[in-house]
Write a structure and sequence with these properties.
Strand content: 25-35%
Distance between the termini: 13 Å
Radius of gyration: 17 Å
Order of helices and strands: EEEEEEEEE
Structural class: mainly beta
Length: 169
């Protein structure tokens, strides 16, 4: 596996309209081209911060020295796995299908249901914390819980956090 990008998770503001709806991994050393330093109409992107209360968090703290994740900025990486041309995120699973390689497993996260829409992404089960200011409350991630109804309650237990696995082949 080859590390392509290490940086900061970023995405839409939790309570503002417009801009993108998905989360991205911004390189820790950005490259710039021409830019306008004044006010102009534009989209916006914000650093992602954990909005997880440790007393109820499903995430392990082992990669963070046992420290709380709540209100801390979130790092990210993008990797290349040679010889495998397909990457698949499988929600509601902790293992990949037969013949696939598990790159990592964790929990499905997104924005809070009362905030603006964001993408669902698979977040490692033992997250790390990035260096940066805390408690900014801009782009926020939360574990995704099941709302059964159209999803059968006998299979998808209401209120449970969904797992996920990132698989390659």
């Amino acid at each position: 596996m080859l590390l392509l990008c290490e940086g900061y998770a970023a995405g839409p503001h939790a309570s503002k309209s417009g801009s993108g709806s998905n989360f991205l991994c911004l390189h820790e050393h950005p490259q710039w081209k021409t830019y306008f330093a004044g006010d102009q109409l534009s989209g916006a992107i914000y650093g992602v911060e954990y909005e997880l209360h440790q007393s109820i968090s499903v995430f392990a703290q082992s990669n963070n020295g046992g420290n709380p994740l709540h209100d801390n900025p979130a790092p990210c990486v993008a990797c290349y796995v040679g010889g495998r041309s397909t990457i698949l995120m499988v929600p509601a699973r902790t293992q990949c299908p037969d013949g696939w390689t598990t790159e990592y497993a964790g929990y499905l996260v997104s924005g809070y249901t009362g905030h603006k829409r964001s993408s669902y992404i698979c977040w490692d089960e033992a997250p790390e914390v990035a260096v940066g200011p805390t408690g900014q409350n801009q782009a926020l991630i939360y574990p995704v819980e099941v709302e059964c109804g159209s999803l059968p309650c006998s299979v998808f237990r209401h209120g449970r956090e969904l797992t996920c696995a990132v698989c390659s082949k």
